[in-house]
Amino acid sequence: MRIAISSDHGGNNLRREIMQLLEELHISYEDFGPQSADSVDYPDYAKPVSDGVANGEFDKGILICGTGIGMSIAANKVNGIRCALVHDVFSAKATRCHNDSNVLAMGERVIGPGLAREIAQTWLETEFEGGRHTRRIEKITELEQ
Fold first, then answer.
1. Contact assessment for residue 119 and residue 64, using Cβ atoms and an 8 Å cutoff
2. For residues 27 and 65, is the Cβ–Cβ distance under 8 A?
3. Which among 45, 49, 2, 8 has a CA at the least distance from the CA of 22?
4. How far is Cα of residue 99 from the mean position of the Cα atoms in its chain?
């Protein structure tokens, strides 16, 4: 599995925590920054992650900002992206099982590092169920046309 990860300035600390988790899980990733605490615009950081997942360069993406809201909105503008804003473990599992989400968004100002790690690990390890959910994903894809 290959992961693309990024944040804005409001998600820097949590991004580093999740990168540490990826290393512990021996999951390959590419960090798209930012590399400083200077204020940046989250769409500029959501785009390379979303593009990389949409074109198949990465299997999944993780985006973090202060709330996760801006990143999830920006990511979902890219065709082929199903970004889920998640702040609890149940939703992390459900969005993989039922929605086949390929990008995870979280908010550093909303959840702590321990919960974020648990959410990310659950999301990374949960498989899409397929079946009746496949039809629904196909309908979501049709909306992109």
1. no
2. no
3. 2
4. 13
The pLDDT value recorded for residue 101 is: 98
Strands 2-7 and 60-65 come out as parallel
Q: Where are the beta strands (DSSP E) in 20-143?
A: 28-31, 60-65, 83-85, 103-107
Q: Which of 4, 77, 8, 12 is nearest to 44 (CA)?
A: 8
E-state strands within the chain: 2-7, 28-31, 60-65, 83-85, 103-107
The closest alpha carbon to 105, from 137, 140, 75, belongs to 75
Catalytic site residues? 65, 98
pLDDT means per 10 residues, the chain with 145 residues, are 97 98 98 94 98 98 98 98 98 98 98 98 97 95 89
Going by C-beta distance under 8 Å and a sequence separation of 6 or more, which residues neighbour residue 50? 61, 74, 75, 77, 78, 81, 83, 103
Identity of residue 44: D
Sign of the dihedral defined by the CA atoms of residues 100, 103, 109, 114, in that order: positive
Q: Which two tokens stand for residue 109?
A: 């100002």
